Structures are given as structure tokens and as C-alpha cells.
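Researcher: I'm preparing a figure for a lab meeting and need a structural model of a single chain. I don't have an experimental structure, so a prediction will have to do for now. The sequence is pasted below. Please return the structure as C-alpha cells so I can convert it later.
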Amino acid sequence: MDWSASGAPLVATRAVHFAATAVMAGNILFQAAVAGPALREQAGVAAAARIRALRISWGALAIAVISGPIWLMLQAASMSGKPLDEALTLDVLSTVITETQFGQMTALRSGIAVCLAICLVCDRAEIARWLGLAASLAFAAALAWTGHAASTFGIVGYLHLAADVLHILAAAAWIGGLVPLIFLLATVHHLGPPSLACEAVGRFSTMGIISVASLMVTGVINTLILVGSARGLIATEYGQLLLIKLAVFAVMLTFAAVNRLSLTPRLGKSGNGVRPSLMRNSAIELVLGLVIFAIVGLLGTLHPAIHLVN
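Model: Understood. Here is the structure written out cell by cell.
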């Protein structure tokens, strides 16, 4: 990995963009699948949660919109092999945008971001909320065409893209959904009965189980395609980073299991006594998830292990 010029900023920008995209999509999905149904009979709590959710969506979308063009410029420098100041010319940028899949996908995702922003402005309308959910998921899923999956050909390539799309959406649902979950638990603590928190956590737990199962299945598929062998995991930088990612994922899964198997069943009984522990563990899960996004930011700039081993 070349850490000179645009190398380190490219990794950091990718990580920030992935994290912001996941939080934005996960937050909107959380409102549709968890908060909305759980709070439908509590108008006051629902209104407070909705305002907080809009702020999260706008903040995450703003970070994604700002980091997107920066990623494009750094990627243009990487693709052209020129220093950043020499790569930021109309000729180089227009070539990247119009003649590379990364540039074309960046332009498409920019259009989706505009549609999403319009939906957020019109959030009071139910159809705008559903269109916003679709736009947020499309904005996240399109990231699959900016990474290694887009470079895999044939039937394996289609499988790789499908697995990557599902992997990204599952990560957004779980990791991105932790942000609104933490805020919702805080809101319910002040405005609602413990039963609301119990229902919300139960719904999120179900979504988390589906997400974890999807991450495991698609992770295996991606590993087989990009690594291919045990030697690739051990003998290459890509494989070693992937092992670190898996270790962080395992720790994150441990905290999620404690939440699901120990704290959530007690939430309905002891209410506020369990809620701080649940919020703390969820916050730890979120931090570990952000570490995973940082690793993903680096993995996307490295050659897959399968290309480096026999």
C-alpha cells in the first residue's frame, strides 16, 4: 500500500463515506422497521424520535455528500498516477467520471443523494418516507459497484456483486441502526414507559439476527472469491487485514449476543435498570462497527489476496 500522496487520505475518506452511508441508510430503515411500529401509539415519543431521526439522516447524508467528491478526486489521482494537484484538472476528472465505472457510479449516486434529500424535506408525507427508504438503500447498495466486486467477471462476478450488495445492506441495517437505537433508548427513558423500549429493542434484535446471518453468508462468499485459500489469508496483507476484521466482528457479535440473550429479556422486567447497560453495549458495538469500516476503507485499496498467491 502506497501511503504517500493520496494513499492515506483515500483510505480515510473511503472509511468515512462508508460509515456515513451506513448510518444514513440504517437510520431510515430503523425508522420504518423498528421505531415506527414500536411507537405508533405514543404520539409524543414518536414525534421526538422522528425529529431526532431526521437530524441523524441529514447529518449522515451531509457527511456522505461531502466525502463523496473528495473520494472521487483522490481516486482520480490514484487512477491517473499523478500527484493530487496535477490530477485535479478538467481532463482527468471528466475522464474518470465518464469513462470509468467508479466515476459513472459516483455520478449516479449523486443523483440518488439529491432524490433522498428531497424525500427528507418532504418527510411528513408517507410516500416521501417510503421513497426515501428506497433511495437510501439504493445509495448504499450502489457502493458494491465501486469496489472489487465490480471487477469480477462472468457468473462469479454477478454472484460477487449480489453478495456485496447484501453485505453492505446488512451492515447498514445492523451497524447503522445502532445509532438511532441508542438515541431512541434515551428518548424513551425520558418520555415513555419501559414497554416501548422493550418492543423497539426486540424489533431491532430480530433485524440484527437477519443482518448477522446475511453478513456471515455473504462474507464467506466474498472471502472465497477474493482470498480463495487459507494461504491467502495468512500470507498476504489483504488476508491479514481480513482476519483482523473478522476478529473485530467476533467481538462485536459477542456484545450483540449479550444484548439479545441477557439484557433484552430483562428489559421488560427491570426497565430503566437494564437500559444503561443496553445503551453502553450498543455504543461499544457501534465503535467496533466503525473500526470495521476503517478496515474496509483500507481493504478496498489493496489487491485481493487471490491475485497474489498461487
